[in-house]
Amino acid sequence: MVNRCQLRCVMCHFAHPDFVESDMEMDRPLLEKVASELFPLAHDVVLSSSAEPLIAKELPRALELCREYEVPFFHFSTNAMALTEKIMEKVCEVQMPVMTVSADGASKETFEKIRRPAKWGRFLSKLALVDRVKERLGSEYPKLSATCVLMRSNIEEAADFVRLFAEHGVSDINFVHMGVLGGLGLENETLSLFPQLSNEKIAEAKSVAQELGVGLMAPMPFPESMYESAGREEEAASSDEGGGQAIVGSEGGIDVCEFLEHKNREFNLAVTSREEHRRMCYFPWYYIHVNPNGTVFPCGHWFEFSTFGDFTKQSFGEIWTGPEFTELRRQIRDLELRPVCANCTISGMGRPDVLASFSRREKQRGG
Question: By the 8 A CB rule, do 222 and 195 touch?
Fold first, then answer.
Protein backbone atom coordinates (compact mmCIF):
# COMPACT_ATOMS: atom_id res chain seq x y z
CA MET A 1 0.00 0.00 0.00
CA VAL A 2 3.02 2.24 0.49
CA ASN A 3 6.67 2.09 -0.49
CA ARG A 4 8.03 3.82 2.59
CA CYS A 5 9.44 2.95 6.00
CA GLN A 6 10.65 5.01 8.96
CA LEU A 7 13.51 2.59 9.64
CA ARG A 8 16.74 1.83 7.83
CA CYS A 9 17.46 -1.70 9.02
CA VAL A 10 21.01 -2.59 8.09
CA MET A 11 20.09 -5.52 5.78
CA CYS A 12 17.15 -3.85 4.02
CA HIS A 13 16.99 -2.24 0.58
CA PHE A 14 15.75 0.93 2.30
CA ALA A 15 19.27 1.27 3.76
CA HIS A 16 21.00 1.07 0.37
CA PRO A 17 22.99 4.26 -0.35
CA ASP A 18 21.36 4.58 -3.78
CA PHE A 19 17.81 3.98 -2.57
CA VAL A 20 15.40 6.86 -3.15
CA GLU A 21 12.23 6.64 -1.10
CA SER A 22 8.99 7.12 -3.00
CA ASP A 23 5.90 8.92 -1.74
CA MET A 24 3.80 6.58 -3.89
CA GLU A 25 0.72 5.35 -2.01
CA MET A 26 -2.32 3.35 -3.06
CA ASP A 27 -5.38 5.61 -3.17
CA ARG A 28 -8.97 4.65 -2.30
CA PRO A 29 -10.29 4.06 -5.86
CA LEU A 30 -7.38 1.77 -6.76
CA LEU A 31 -7.66 -0.07 -3.44
CA GLU A 32 -11.38 -0.67 -4.01
CA LYS A 33 -10.71 -1.97 -7.55
CA VAL A 34 -7.95 -4.33 -6.48
CA ALA A 35 -10.04 -5.59 -3.57
CA SER A 36 -13.12 -6.18 -5.71
CA GLU A 37 -11.16 -8.32 -8.18
CA LEU A 38 -8.72 -10.13 -5.91
CA PHE A 39 -10.21 -10.48 -2.43
CA PRO A 40 -13.15 -12.74 -3.41
CA LEU A 41 -10.60 -15.19 -4.87
CA ALA A 42 -7.91 -14.94 -2.20
CA HIS A 43 -7.31 -17.33 0.66
CA ASP A 44 -4.60 -15.04 2.09
CA VAL A 45 -4.16 -11.27 1.76
CA VAL A 46 -0.95 -9.66 3.02
CA LEU A 47 -1.31 -5.91 3.51
CA SER A 48 2.43 -5.29 3.61
CA SER A 49 5.50 -6.26 1.64
CA SER A 50 8.95 -4.83 2.36
CA ALA A 51 7.43 -1.56 3.59
CA GLU A 52 5.64 -0.23 6.68
CA PRO A 53 1.83 -0.63 6.47
CA LEU A 54 0.98 1.43 9.56
CA ILE A 55 1.88 4.66 7.73
CA ALA A 56 -0.56 3.92 4.89
CA LYS A 57 -3.54 6.29 5.01
CA GLU A 58 -5.90 3.67 3.59
CA LEU A 59 -4.91 0.83 5.93
CA PRO A 60 -8.17 1.07 7.95
CA ARG A 61 -10.23 0.77 4.76
CA ALA A 62 -8.08 -2.12 3.53
CA LEU A 63 -8.78 -3.95 6.78
CA GLU A 64 -12.51 -3.33 6.39
CA LEU A 65 -12.44 -4.64 2.81
CA CYS A 66 -10.75 -7.85 3.92
CA ARG A 67 -13.60 -8.42 6.35
CA GLU A 68 -16.32 -7.33 3.88
CA TYR A 69 -15.06 -9.78 1.25
CA GLU A 70 -14.68 -12.48 3.91
CA VAL A 71 -11.02 -13.15 3.15
CA PRO A 72 -10.19 -16.30 5.16
CA PHE A 73 -6.77 -15.09 6.29
CA PHE A 74 -5.38 -11.54 6.20
CA HIS A 75 -2.52 -9.94 8.04
CA PHE A 76 0.41 -7.54 7.88
CA SER A 77 3.97 -7.32 9.16
CA THR A 78 5.06 -4.17 10.96
CA ASN A 79 7.98 -2.66 12.83
CA ALA A 80 5.30 -1.41 15.29
CA MET A 81 6.86 2.04 15.69
CA ALA A 82 3.77 3.83 14.33
CA LEU A 83 1.21 1.66 16.14
CA THR A 84 -1.54 3.65 17.89
CA GLU A 85 -4.54 2.68 19.97
CA LYS A 86 -6.84 3.79 17.13
CA ILE A 87 -5.16 1.49 14.60
CA MET A 88 -5.08 -1.37 17.09
CA GLU A 89 -8.78 -0.90 17.80
CA LYS A 90 -9.53 -1.18 14.06
CA VAL A 91 -7.42 -4.34 13.81
CA CYS A 92 -9.42 -5.85 16.67
CA GLU A 93 -12.73 -4.61 15.24
CA VAL A 94 -12.24 -6.49 11.95
CA GLN A 95 -10.79 -9.49 13.82
CA MET A 96 -7.64 -9.66 11.73
CA PRO A 97 -6.30 -13.16 12.42
CA VAL A 98 -2.59 -12.34 12.84
CA MET A 99 -0.35 -9.32 13.23
CA THR A 100 3.39 -9.89 12.79
CA VAL A 101 6.02 -7.70 14.41
CA SER A 102 9.59 -7.58 13.10
CA ALA A 103 12.33 -7.34 15.69
CA ASP A 104 15.68 -8.96 14.70
CA GLY A 105 17.04 -8.81 18.23
CA ALA A 106 16.31 -9.89 21.80
CA SER A 107 18.37 -7.20 23.51
CA LYS A 108 18.58 -3.42 23.37
CA GLU A 109 22.10 -3.50 21.95
CA THR A 110 21.34 -5.91 19.10
CA PHE A 111 17.91 -4.47 18.29
CA GLU A 112 19.19 -0.90 17.98
CA LYS A 113 22.30 -1.99 16.06
CA ILE A 114 20.18 -3.64 13.36
CA ARG A 115 16.88 -1.73 13.32
CA ARG A 116 18.10 1.84 12.96
CA PRO A 117 16.96 4.32 14.29
CA ALA A 118 14.33 2.41 16.31
CA LYS A 119 14.57 2.41 20.10
CA TRP A 120 14.16 -0.73 22.19
CA GLY A 121 12.06 0.93 24.87
CA ARG A 122 9.57 2.30 22.34
CA PHE A 123 9.29 -1.11 20.69
CA LEU A 124 8.50 -2.81 24.00
CA SER A 125 5.89 -0.14 24.73
CA LYS A 126 4.14 -1.00 21.46
CA LEU A 127 3.99 -4.68 22.42
CA ALA A 128 2.37 -3.59 25.68
CA LEU A 129 -0.11 -1.46 23.71
CA VAL A 130 -1.21 -4.55 21.75
CA ASP A 131 -1.88 -6.45 24.97
CA ARG A 132 -3.66 -3.49 26.55
CA VAL A 133 -6.09 -2.86 23.68
CA LYS A 134 -6.90 -6.55 23.20
CA GLU A 135 -7.60 -6.93 26.90
CA ARG A 136 -9.77 -3.79 27.04
CA LEU A 137 -11.85 -4.93 24.06
CA GLY A 138 -11.92 -8.56 25.16
CA SER A 139 -10.56 -9.58 21.76
CA GLU A 140 -8.75 -12.82 21.10
CA TYR A 141 -7.53 -11.45 17.77
CA PRO A 142 -5.17 -10.61 16.30
CA LYS A 143 -2.85 -13.35 17.39
CA LEU A 144 0.64 -11.92 17.66
CA SER A 145 3.56 -13.39 15.74
CA ALA A 146 7.15 -12.25 15.38
CA THR A 147 9.78 -12.47 12.68
CA CYS A 148 13.56 -12.24 12.82
CA VAL A 149 16.10 -11.98 10.00
CA LEU A 150 19.02 -14.13 11.09
CA MET A 151 22.60 -12.94 10.72
CA ARG A 152 25.89 -13.21 12.59
CA SER A 153 25.03 -10.24 14.82
CA ASN A 154 21.90 -11.84 16.26
CA ILE A 155 22.14 -15.62 15.78
CA GLU A 156 23.40 -16.15 19.34
CA GLU A 157 20.21 -14.50 20.64
CA ALA A 158 17.89 -16.86 18.75
CA ALA A 159 16.77 -18.77 21.86
CA ASP A 160 16.41 -15.54 23.85
CA PHE A 161 14.27 -14.15 21.03
CA VAL A 162 11.86 -17.05 21.51
CA ARG A 163 11.81 -16.56 25.29
CA LEU A 164 11.22 -12.81 25.01
CA PHE A 165 8.30 -13.02 22.64
CA ALA A 166 6.74 -15.96 24.43
CA GLU A 167 6.53 -13.66 27.46
CA HIS A 168 4.59 -11.18 25.30
CA GLY A 169 2.04 -13.74 24.17
CA VAL A 170 3.47 -14.41 20.72
CA SER A 171 2.07 -17.67 19.36
CA ASP A 172 4.30 -18.11 16.31
CA ILE A 173 7.80 -17.01 15.30
CA ASN A 174 9.42 -17.04 11.88
CA PHE A 175 13.20 -17.08 11.41
CA VAL A 176 14.59 -16.35 7.93
CA HIS A 177 18.17 -16.12 6.73
CA MET A 178 19.47 -12.76 5.63
CA GLY A 179 20.11 -12.36 1.92
CA VAL A 180 23.05 -10.05 1.23
CA LEU A 181 22.19 -7.15 -1.06
CA GLY A 182 25.16 -5.55 -2.77
CA GLY A 183 26.20 -2.15 -1.49
CA LEU A 184 25.23 -2.65 2.16
CA GLY A 185 28.59 -3.98 3.38
CA LEU A 186 27.10 -7.00 5.16
CA GLU A 187 29.00 -9.77 3.39
CA ASN A 188 30.49 -10.96 6.69
CA GLU A 189 27.05 -11.18 8.33
CA THR A 190 25.66 -14.01 6.19
CA LEU A 191 25.27 -17.24 8.13
CA SER A 192 26.45 -19.24 5.14
CA LEU A 193 29.88 -18.34 6.54
CA PHE A 194 28.90 -19.81 9.92
CA PRO A 195 26.79 -22.89 9.08
CA GLN A 196 27.62 -24.93 12.19
CA LEU A 197 26.94 -22.03 14.57
CA SER A 198 23.69 -21.32 12.73
CA ASN A 199 22.51 -24.93 13.00
CA GLU A 200 23.37 -25.13 16.70
CA LYS A 201 21.64 -21.88 17.66
CA ILE A 202 18.53 -22.59 15.60
CA ALA A 203 18.30 -26.07 17.14
CA GLU A 204 18.54 -24.48 20.59
CA ALA A 205 15.78 -22.02 19.70
CA LYS A 206 13.57 -24.87 18.46
CA SER A 207 14.03 -26.69 21.74
CA VAL A 208 13.04 -23.58 23.72
CA ALA A 209 10.03 -22.99 21.46
CA GLN A 210 8.82 -26.54 21.98
CA GLU A 211 9.25 -26.19 25.73
CA LEU A 212 7.26 -22.92 25.79
CA GLY A 213 4.57 -24.03 23.33
CA VAL A 214 5.51 -21.48 20.67
CA GLY A 215 5.34 -22.37 16.98
CA LEU A 216 8.69 -21.78 15.26
CA MET A 217 9.22 -21.75 11.50
CA ALA A 218 12.97 -21.82 10.91
CA PRO A 219 15.26 -22.32 7.92
CA MET A 220 16.28 -25.84 7.05
CA PRO A 221 19.69 -26.76 8.53
CA PHE A 222 22.88 -26.30 6.57
CA PRO A 223 24.27 -29.68 5.49
CA GLU A 224 27.29 -30.70 7.54
CA SER A 225 29.24 -30.91 4.29
CA MET A 226 29.26 -27.08 4.30
CA TYR A 227 31.11 -26.88 7.61
CA GLU A 228 34.48 -27.41 5.95
CA SER A 229 33.97 -24.52 3.54
CA ALA A 230 32.74 -22.11 6.23
CA GLY A 231 34.38 -18.71 6.08
CA ARG A 232 34.58 -18.53 2.28
CA GLU A 233 32.64 -15.78 0.55
CA GLU A 234 31.14 -16.74 -2.79
CA GLU A 235 29.92 -14.58 -5.62
CA ALA A 236 26.74 -15.81 -7.31
CA ALA A 237 28.42 -15.42 -10.68
CA SER A 238 31.47 -17.48 -9.73
CA SER A 239 29.82 -20.15 -7.61
CA ASP A 240 29.77 -23.59 -9.22
CA GLU A 241 26.06 -23.64 -8.44
CA GLY A 242 25.35 -20.03 -9.36
CA GLY A 243 24.03 -20.57 -12.86
CA GLY A 244 20.49 -21.21 -13.99
CA GLN A 245 20.04 -24.23 -11.74
CA ALA A 246 21.20 -22.77 -8.42
CA ILE A 247 17.88 -23.46 -6.78
CA VAL A 248 18.04 -27.17 -7.62
CA GLY A 249 21.06 -27.83 -5.44
CA SER A 250 23.61 -30.55 -5.91
CA GLU A 251 23.92 -34.29 -5.46
CA GLY A 252 23.99 -35.19 -1.79
CA GLY A 253 22.28 -31.95 -0.78
CA ILE A 254 18.79 -31.33 0.55
CA ASP A 255 15.97 -33.17 -1.17
CA VAL A 256 14.16 -30.87 -3.61
CA CYS A 257 10.72 -32.08 -2.54
CA GLU A 258 11.53 -31.58 1.14
CA PHE A 259 12.77 -28.06 0.41
CA LEU A 260 9.70 -27.03 -1.59
CA GLU A 261 7.30 -28.44 0.98
CA HIS A 262 9.09 -26.32 3.59
CA LYS A 263 8.94 -23.13 1.50
CA ASN A 264 5.29 -23.55 0.55
CA ARG A 265 4.37 -23.88 4.23
CA GLU A 266 6.48 -20.86 5.17
CA PHE A 267 4.79 -18.61 2.61
CA ASN A 268 1.30 -20.05 3.13
CA LEU A 269 0.92 -20.96 -0.54
CA ALA A 270 -2.14 -23.09 -1.26
CA VAL A 271 -0.08 -25.90 -2.76
CA THR A 272 -1.16 -29.42 -1.89
CA SER A 273 1.49 -31.59 -0.27
CA ARG A 274 2.97 -34.09 -2.70
CA GLU A 275 5.75 -36.63 -2.96
CA GLU A 276 7.19 -35.13 -6.13
CA HIS A 277 7.46 -31.52 -7.29
CA ARG A 278 8.00 -30.63 -10.93
CA ARG A 279 8.42 -26.89 -10.37
CA MET A 280 11.21 -25.06 -8.55
CA CYS A 281 8.91 -22.24 -7.38
CA TYR A 282 5.13 -21.91 -7.04
CA PHE A 283 4.75 -18.16 -6.68
CA PRO A 284 3.64 -17.39 -10.28
CA TRP A 285 0.76 -19.87 -9.88
CA TYR A 286 -0.42 -18.86 -6.40
CA TYR A 287 0.68 -15.29 -5.69
CA ILE A 288 0.39 -11.76 -7.04
CA HIS A 289 2.14 -8.69 -5.68
CA VAL A 290 0.37 -5.35 -6.28
CA ASN A 291 2.46 -2.21 -5.89
CA PRO A 292 0.99 1.05 -4.53
CA ASN A 293 0.65 2.44 -8.07
CA GLY A 294 -1.19 -0.65 -9.33
CA THR A 295 1.68 -2.29 -11.19
CA VAL A 296 2.24 -5.99 -10.56
CA PHE A 297 5.21 -8.19 -9.65
CA PRO A 298 5.06 -12.02 -9.59
CA CYS A 299 6.53 -12.19 -6.09
CA GLY A 300 7.60 -9.96 -3.22
CA HIS A 301 11.31 -10.41 -3.98
CA TRP A 302 11.24 -9.31 -7.62
CA PHE A 303 14.45 -7.27 -7.77
CA GLU A 304 14.49 -7.42 -11.55
CA PHE A 305 11.70 -4.80 -11.31
CA SER A 306 10.04 -5.70 -14.62
CA THR A 307 6.26 -5.32 -14.25
CA PHE A 308 3.71 -7.98 -15.12
CA GLY A 309 0.64 -5.79 -15.48
CA ASP A 310 -1.12 -2.68 -14.21
CA PHE A 311 -4.43 -2.62 -12.31
CA THR A 312 -5.05 0.97 -13.40
CA LYS A 313 -5.28 -0.24 -17.00
CA GLN A 314 -6.07 -3.96 -16.84
CA SER A 315 -8.29 -6.43 -15.07
CA PHE A 316 -6.94 -9.22 -12.88
CA GLY A 317 -7.90 -11.77 -15.54
CA GLU A 318 -5.93 -9.93 -18.20
CA ILE A 319 -2.88 -9.71 -15.95
CA TRP A 320 -3.01 -13.28 -14.62
CA THR A 321 -3.31 -14.85 -18.08
CA GLY A 322 -1.10 -12.28 -19.80
CA PRO A 323 2.18 -12.91 -21.63
CA GLU A 324 4.46 -11.96 -18.72
CA PHE A 325 3.01 -14.46 -16.24
CA THR A 326 2.66 -17.09 -18.96
CA GLU A 327 6.32 -16.83 -19.95
CA LEU A 328 7.60 -16.84 -16.36
CA ARG A 329 5.60 -19.99 -15.61
CA ARG A 330 7.08 -21.63 -18.70
CA GLN A 331 10.62 -20.68 -17.63
CA ILE A 332 10.13 -22.19 -14.19
CA ARG A 333 8.42 -25.29 -15.54
CA ASP A 334 11.24 -25.85 -18.07
CA LEU A 335 13.97 -24.80 -15.62
CA GLU A 336 15.12 -21.96 -17.86
CA LEU A 337 15.45 -19.54 -14.97
CA ARG A 338 16.20 -15.87 -15.47
CA PRO A 339 18.93 -14.47 -13.15
CA VAL A 340 16.52 -13.00 -10.57
CA CYS A 341 15.04 -16.49 -10.09
CA ALA A 342 18.19 -18.58 -10.44
CA ASN A 343 19.90 -16.49 -7.77
CA CYS A 344 16.87 -15.54 -5.71
CA THR A 345 17.74 -12.37 -3.83
CA ILE A 346 16.28 -13.51 -0.52
CA SER A 347 18.39 -16.33 0.87
CA GLY A 348 15.42 -17.83 2.70
CA MET A 349 13.97 -18.50 -0.75
CA GLY A 350 17.14 -20.29 -1.85
CA ARG A 351 18.55 -23.66 -0.96
CA PRO A 352 20.55 -23.68 2.31
CA ASP A 353 22.99 -26.08 0.64
CA VAL A 354 23.58 -23.71 -2.30
CA LEU A 355 26.14 -20.98 -1.67
CA ALA A 356 24.73 -18.88 -4.51
CA SER A 357 21.59 -18.38 -2.42
CA PHE A 358 23.63 -16.36 0.07
CA SER A 359 26.03 -14.62 -2.30
CA ARG A 360 26.09 -10.87 -2.55
CA ARG A 361 24.50 -9.30 -5.60
CA GLU A 362 23.40 -5.88 -6.73
CA LYS A 363 19.77 -5.05 -7.28
CA GLN A 364 19.29 -4.73 -11.00
CA ARG A 365 16.58 -3.49 -13.28
CA GLY A 366 15.56 -5.71 -16.14
CA GLY A 367 13.31 -5.47 -19.13
Answer: yes
